[in-house]
Amino acid sequence: MSNYLEAGSIVAGAGGLTLWMEYLNLNDAKLGLLGALSANGFGSAIGAFLGGILVDKFGRKFIYKYDLLVYMLGILLIMFSFNFPMLLVGYVVTGIAVGAAIPAAWTYIAEEAPKGERAARVGWGQFAWSIGPAITLFLSVLLAPLGLLGSRIIFAQLFVVALITWIMQQQINESTIWTEEKEKEKSQREVGKQDVSWKQLFTVKANLKAIVLLVGIYVFWNLVAGVMGYFMPYIYETVGGLSASQANLLQGFLWTLTVAATYFVFIKLGDRVNRKLLYGVGAGMGIAAWLVLTFGGMGMFELITFVVLWGIAAGFGAQAFYGLWAGELFHTRYRAKAQGFIFALARIAVGLISLVVPLMITSLGFQSAGMIMIGFLVIAAVIGLIMAPETRGKSLEEIQEDRYGRAEERQRQARN
């Protein structure tokens, strides 16, 4: 449900973007600022960075006591916005809450999953992430006759779901792996060992390799996905000439395909089929989708082809594998902190590009912008194909031993 709320809030803002633009008479700069500071950009970057630190220090469950309360405050501000500053603050507050929940959710799922079902469990998080936008966009079509009121109602349903989810989250247990690791660290402190430092995240070889892989696949892929998540209906309307309802319906169909691909490919095959192969197929389909959109024009045939290719590819693309590998490749003591750092980096990148997307399309033209997106996807594909690990069927403890080893662990303790 956290994943549903997080993705749903990003797309709720995107689905009503032109409505807010007309209501508040927003220019390209203000549109870019909304995208940059929202749950799609800097807002979630701040939340993820802070959330990663808190989740490693106080526990995976800690974040669930407060996070959705902040989320609901942001949603209320958006629901009742009547000027740009109020809308912007609502987007920022919601974004911080969204970012803070990410390292908690993906870390908790990975740590509690059986070793032979970890991709499937992570996949269910991705499944919910995809359902959020699909439902939000279809609601946008259904409520389109109501104009901006319809957009406010969509945020209202997110508020209701968030309230129910917050009540449910109070019942979960703390991560067993995190609890055991904290007991070990407590024992080490009693004999004079130092706590884990940020320096270790960037100096331990296994951490560096994981960071390079995850930044390479997720940051560059997310530059494209982030632009799509927030600006794609806007692009369909301003470049493709579609109505707001047509744009939201098309994007809702895309997310429905992502839901299906997540279930039938990532959940069903992620623990059984070579993961580098799955990643490569998804990356190739994503590149093909943007080639069609960029060089084929924006006729209905090209748009449908793009939606089918990207929608299916996203179900087992970089985000699904990021969620899986980010939980697997880091030692328990670094896991949430590392995820918070990488996710924050990805959202900062999206925030920066969101500042200029409307202006880039207006001044350079969509084809030039599309070529930049293709370049990002190629970089993510190459890095993933070169560095993708094979961790199927192993417990987190076995992966940890493979990557860090007893010798490196002794060296770390000696340095402390």
Topology pattern, helix = H, strand = E: HHHHHHHHHHHHHHHHHH
Backbone shape = globular
Distance between the termini: 40 Å
Mean pLDDT, rounded to whole units? 87
CATH second-level architecture: Up-down Bundle
Rg, rounded, reads 21 Å
| Helix residue percentage | over 70%
Pfam families: MFS_1
Main location: membrane
Subcellular location: Cell membrane
InterPro entries: MFS, MFS_dom, MFS_trans_sf, Sugar_transporter_CS
Gist of the model:
This protein is mainly α.
How does this structure look, described?
- The protein is mostly helical and 416 residues long.
- The protein has one domain: Growth Hormone, Chain: A, CATH 1.20.1250.20.
- Helix content is 82%, strand content 0%.
- It is built from 18 helices and no strands.
- The longest helix has 34 residues.
- This is MFS transporter.
- Pfam families: MFS_1.
- Keywords: Membrane, Transmembrane, Transmembrane helix, Transport.
Write the layout of secondary structure elements.
Elements lengths: L1 H14 L1 H8 L3 H10 L4 H17 L4 H17 L4 H29 L5 H25 L5 H22 L6 H15 L7 H6 L1 H34 L5 H26 L5 H21 L4 H15 L3 H11 L6 H30 L1 H22 L8 H20 L1
Helix pairs in contact: 1-6, 1-7, 1-8, 1-11, 3-6, 3-16, 4-6, 4-16, 5-6, 5-8, 6-7, 6-15, 6-16, 7-12, 7-15, 11-12, 11-15, 11-16, 11-17, 12-14, 13-14, 13-17, 16-17
